[in-house]
């Protein structure tokens, strides 16, 4: 009897941890529309529009700090932007849930490249 209990617990843990690794691509292989290509990522063409759509409602002059509407501010805050918007640490940005995987990959690639003003 105990054995069955242990086995059920093990099965439960396994099924729960399996969910942890699910990704949008794996769950919806045919409908995943995110472009995870990180080549040709630029501040002006990729990052600024991404921040405008996902962050600047709140992070603007007179809004929540940091103001993420100008390159100099984004550059100065790139470490904390990375931890919030990519790692979700200590809490995710945008508030509640992270951006799409495609956006996070692009933002991560741009920061890893030194967050150039291109
Ligand atoms: C709905 C409003 C809202 C949106 C959208 C939003 N944020 Fe925030 N953000 C906040 C608030 C409120 C705080 C302060 C509370 C906190 O730290 O959780 C904050 C805090 C932060 C901080 C921490 C600043 C510090 O000094 O610790 C960073 C970095 C940040 N946001 C980046 C982003 C990025 C990048 C995006 C877009 C990908 C984003 N936020 C989208 C409201 C928002």
Global mean pLDDT: 85
Number of helices: 6
Order of helices and strands: HHHHHH
Number of domains: 2
Number of strands: 0
Give the low-pLDDT segments.
29-33
SS-derived structural category: mainly alpha
Share of helical residues: 40-55%
**What does the main sheet amount to?**
none
Molecules bound to protein? heme C
The coarse silhouette is elongated
Q: Strand share of the residues? A: under 5%
Amino-to-carboxy terminus distance: 65 Å
Please state the CA-atom Rg, rounded to the nearest Å: 19 Å
Can you give me a brief rundown of this structure?
The chain is mostly helical. The chain is built from six helices and no strands.
List keywords for this structure.
0% strand; binds heme C; 6 helices; 2 domains; single chain; mainly alpha
Topology readout:
Elements: H1 2-20, H2 24-27, H3 43-54, H4 71-76, H5 78-85, H6 101-112
Helix pairs in contact: 3-6, 5-6
The protein binds heme C.
Structure, explained:
The chain is mainly α. It has 2 domains: 1-33; 34-118, no CATH class. It is 52% helix and 0% strand. It is built from 6 helices and no strands. The protein has helices at residues 2-20, 24-27, 43-54, 71-76, 78-85, 101-112. Helix 3 packs across helix 6 (101-112) and helix 5 (78-85) runs antiparallel to helix 6 (101-112). The longest helix has 19 residues, at 2-20. The radius of gyration is 19 Å and the shape is elongated. Bound molecules: heme C. Heme C binds at residues 54-55, 57-59, 64, 66, 68, 77, 80-81, 84-85, 91, 93-95, 99. Residues 54-55, 57-59, 64, 66, 68, 77, 80-81, 84-85, 91, 93-95, 99 line the site of heme C.
């Amino acid at each position: 009897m105990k054995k069955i209990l242990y086995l059920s617990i093990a099965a439960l843990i396994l099924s729960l941890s399996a969910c942890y690794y699910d990704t949008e691509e794996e769950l919806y292989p045919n409908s995943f529309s995110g472009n995870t290509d990180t080549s040709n990522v630029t501040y002006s063409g990729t990052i600024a529009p991404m921040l405008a759509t996902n962050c600047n409602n709140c992070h603007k002059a007179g809004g929540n700090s940091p103001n993420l509407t100008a390159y100099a501010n984004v550059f100065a805050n790139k470490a904390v932007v990375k931890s919030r918007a990519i790692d979700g640490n200590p809490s995710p940005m945008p508030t509640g849930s992270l951006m799409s995987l495609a956006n996070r990959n692009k933002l991560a690639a741009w920061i890893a490249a030194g967050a150039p003003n291109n």
